Amino acid sequence: MSADTTGLPEALAEVVTDFHEMPESQRLALLLEFSTGLPALPQKYADHPELLEPVPECQSPIFVVVDVEGQGPDAAVRLAFSAPPEAPTTRGFAGILAEGLDGATAQEVLDVPNDLPGRLALTDLVSPLRLGGMAGMLGRIKRQTREKAGLGA
């Protein structure tokens, strides 16, 4: 089955394609690579964790915040996550979103289909609850992007 990259920014489409091209036996290892590649939380948020939004759909404590540079659909989106190292699956999903969406425009972020977690070819390897956690992260990213870019409901 080929990767469905419809509606995805280029960087996120590449991630989805990478998962599909990887043998199933190696996909969890790729997810773990994203977990180790999750950028460190910027100091301004490390000093003020109350500025981050929790994602209760995740089994592990993860927090996300979106910074938007400018207003409108072409505003650049920056993502920051706080996820514990002992939660590699959750960190991996956050790493995928960081790599695939950080630097995208607000409109590109808002256009990401909500079924993104199911497009990663991990449904046979990761529990639906964990995929739901990634969907929760994406939902919060989209909501914060919409609000901070001034794009209404």
Structure description:
46% of the residues lie in helices and 10% in strands. It contains six helices and three strands; from the N terminus they run αααβββααα. A three-stranded antiparallel sheet has the order 1-2-3. The model has no long low-confidence stretch (mean pLDDT 94). Helix 1 packs across helix 4 (88-101), helix 2 crosses helix 4 and helix 4 packs parallel to helix 6. The longest helix has 21 residues, at 128-148. It has one domain: Sufe protein. Chain: A. The chain is globular. It has 153 residues and is mainly alpha-helical. The protein has helices at 10-21, 24-36, 43-46, 88-101, 106-111, 128-148, and strands at 53-54, 63-69, 76-82. The N and C termini lie far apart (35 Å). A hairpin with a 6-residue loop joins strand 2 and strand 3 (76-82).
The value of Rg in angstroms is 15 Å
| First-last Cα distance | 35 Å
| Total helical segments | 6
Shape field: globular
The number of distinct structural domains comes to 1
Query: How does CATH name the architecture?
Result: Alpha-Beta Complex
Give the strand content: 5-15%
CATH class: Alpha Beta
- Mean pLDDT comes to 94
